[in-house]
Amino acid sequence: MRYVYAVCRPLDAPLAADLTGVGGVPPRQLAHEGLIAVVGPVPERDFAEEPLRRHLEDLDWLSDTARAHQRVIAALTSVTCPLPLRLATVFRDDSGVRAMLEEGADRFRRVLDRIDGCVEWGVKVHLESEESSRERPAEGAPSKPLSGRDYLRQRRSRQTAQDESWQRAEAFAQALHEKLSRRADDSRLHAPQNSSLSKAPGRNILNAAYLVPRAHSEEFVELVDHTKDEEGDSSGLRVELTGPWAAYSFTADDETGADDAGRSR
């Protein structure tokens, strides 16, 4: 079977000779009408419909496959601007891959035109955990309430401080997003991450992706770093920058959804 990592334009530079993908097999290029599908052979015993469904519930297998998939996408991103397909996009043979390229040609070209010359940067803003805030009494307040009335007063004071902190964090995140969006060709706001799942300390306020021309990436990174220095730890906010990545957040086609090709067939 054929595992498809991404669709891209013809490469200007070769991929590293020692690059391997899923199953430890080097990827190859399959050309069709000006488009390239980056593919690799995978065994039917693992990637036919039924075994693949079982494997997708195996976290170890899924993690190994995702790392191999990302390794190929990262290599492609260093030499071109690929359109990554979903994990475990497989076809029976080369003819199935060509049919996918034929069917989605218009969509792929639109998206490739839009992301050409760009990479994705991720920016997150976290507010320190509310538990940490609760552990610190307000300045000048006694460490323990002297009476029930004092307890209620301290509780109201902490709640007011938390509300104000949350409002400041939201205002900061919105202003930062607007500032970064002006330096990007496009942006996407993702749902905030659940800290219990991401294991990141604090509460996620902003979870955004930015499509930035490679030529302007250094300026974009400097802008985020400057924001980190300005804000500092004393505010209880943490700004996190990740990337550069392939343009994962910008591969959907506004008209019909270019990522529809990322289904097993």
Automatic annotation (TrEMBL):
Classification of source organism: Bacteria, Bacillati, Actinomycetota, Actinomycetes, Kitasatosporales
Report the protein name in the record.
Gas vesicle protein
Q: Which GO terms describe its biological process?
A: gas vesicle organization
What organism does the UniProt record list as the source? Answer: Streptomyces alboniger
Its chief place of residence is other
Q: Does the keyword Glycoprotein apply?
A: no
One matching Pfam family is: GvpL_GvpF
Under PANTHER family, the record lists: PROTEIN GVPL 2
- UniProt GO cellular component terms: gas vesicle
Record's superkingdom? Bacteria
